[in-house]
Write a structure and sequence with these properties.
Chains A, B: InterPro entries: cNMP-bd_dom (IPR000595), cNMP-bd_dom_sf (IPR018490), RmlC-like_jellyroll (IPR014710). Chains A, B: This is CRP-like cAMP-binding protein. The structure is a homodimer. Helices cover about 50% and strands about 20% of the residues of chain A. Chain A is an alpha+beta fold. Chain A has a domain of about 110 residues: Jelly Rolls, CATH 2.60.120.10. Chain A has a 4-stranded antiparallel β-sheet with strand order 1-8-3-6. The first copy, chain A, has a 4-stranded antiparallel β-sheet with strand order 2-7-4-5. In chain A, strand 4 and strand 5 form a beta hairpin. Chains A and B meet through helix 3 and helix 5 of A and helix 3 and helix 5 of B.
């Protein structure tokens, strides 16, 4: 499925747009292709866009002072990603986004998102529900981080996103779970 | 300031409503008064409402199998709270919400929120931006949990919400930070 069809199908689960409205909406996106390992957002960048993943897999991550990596989010096909803190507050990026695999993304500028939300009520409806779902997922992950040990978090991730295990190298899954690669190996071999 | 004025001021920071639109919007809220210690949502409840805090302080929390409490959110004047996972997915509550102090809240039913969002574009705009901000705060807290030690998280909380320290007993601040009361005492006395 090409990016336009994928985005149309994705939006139509939440909002009702006429074909004309969707074509107008879609005309504000730019299709970008990235190679595995390429960086989309670097810490310190001005952040002006969010990205709808058409194909491939991205990661949003943070590197601390000890050069330890924490993965905030994986983003696969039909997921959205950006540094939303920077995007919404017009501040500089504090996280990075790069490509785990070759990837195609549809890029939407912040000013265009706001214009489209103001022009088409159903577009605002779509973005409200997209963020509602992101908020709930983020709260669940926070609760899981507070309450669950590595084994439980690992099993949760397996259940929620089984496809990640084919797409994503094990050391990145460890960085998402906040554990070492050795601990992950023990959990992985214990299945 | 009474609840109606407080909500009007709160909404007007994000959305533009005429007086008639605001009065109509406000007519869907119910003012409720609770005593310190009273429960608003219990694990297992059907969740049909979200709450705008007029006065006082609430907490949204989770009790695990070992009867350990984790605080997901404090909610003070002009904050919103509910079990949003249950509210948005029409499932049973997995967390609890109760009152740290006497409190007055404005209750909005889920069906009314959706009706108002559909009827008044600016109401949908308001709720989109409210959740955008909640999403970013939740992502920041997650990153802080992954990366920062208790001392750093304590200092962050102090900086972000200094007023919490007068409103909220220390053992609840410890439950928010995911540390013991003893560790918090050490940090508190080290200031």
């Amino acid at each position: 499925m090409n990016g336009q069809e994928l985005l149309k199908q994705h939006i139509s689960k939440t909002a009702t747009l006429t074909d004309e409205q969707f074509d107008y909406f879609f005309s504000h996106f730019t299709l970008l292709s990235f190679k595995k390992g390429q960086t989309i957002i670097s810490e310190g960048d001005e952040v002006d866009c969010e990205y709808f993943v058409v194909s491939g897999c991205l990661k949003a991550f943070f590197i601390n002072d000890d050069i330890k990596m924490y993965i905030l989010q994986f983003a696969m096909s039909t997921w959205w990603t950006s540094d939303y803190n920077a995007l919404y507050s017009h501040s500089r990026a504090t996280i990075n986004v790069d490509c785990i695999t070759d990837a195609e993304v549809l890029c939407l500028k912040s000013a265009d998102r706001e214009k489209l939300c103001a022009e088409i009520h159903q577009v605002e409806h779509f973005f409200r529900w997209r963020t509602n779902r992101g908020y709930v997922a983020s709260q669940k992950r926070l609760l899981s981080f507070m309450n669950n040990d590595a084994k439980k978090r690992y099993e949760e991730l397996l259940t929620l996103y089984p496809e990640l295990y084919n797409l994503v190298p094990k050391h990145l899954i460890a960085a998402y779970l906040g554990i070492t690669r050795e601990t992950l190996s023990r959990l992985y071999n214990g299945r």
